[in-house]
Amino acid sequence: MPAQILDELVFVPFPVRLYRELLDRHSNRANAVIENVVEDFLDRTAELIPRTAKNRGAGMFWEALFLP
After folding, report:
1. Cα angle at 21 between 6 and 41, to 5 degrees?
2. 39 with 32: CB under 8 angstroms?
3. Are 59 and 66 in contact (CB under 8 A)?
4. DSSP for residue 58
5. Are 22 and 33 in contact (CB under 8 A)?
6. Residue 65 is inside which H or E element, if any?
7. pLDDT tens-digit map of 11-29
8. What is the torsional sign of CA 18, 39, 59, 61?
């Protein structure tokens, strides 16, 4: 897999049982289903949590990720 693509992916622990169920129902689209559900959730909850800068102490940002 090209490094450019890996730079844009995050690997999140996900129960195998749930992933198998998605594969059974949606075959080769399981990843797209997860992505769509997360995007929908973020859209629906965008106004519930204001995005304010917090004092996080020492650290740095690596693109949008804060590293303490």
Report:
1. 60
2. no
3. yes
4. S
5. yes
6. strand 65-67
7. 889 999 999 999 999 988 9
8. positive
| Amino acid identity for residue 45 in this structure | T
User: CB-based contacts of 15: which residues, under 8 Å, 6+ apart?
Assistant: none
Q: Can you read off the two tokens belonging to residue 22?
A: 């998605």
For the stretch 7-43, what's the b/e string if a residue is b when 16 or more beta carbons lie within 10 angstroms of its beta carbon?
A: eeeeeeeeeeeeeeebeeeeeeebeeebeeeeeeeee
Structure tokens at 61: 């940002």
Residue owning tokens 């965008």 = 46
> What per-residue confidence (pLDDT) applies to 18?
94
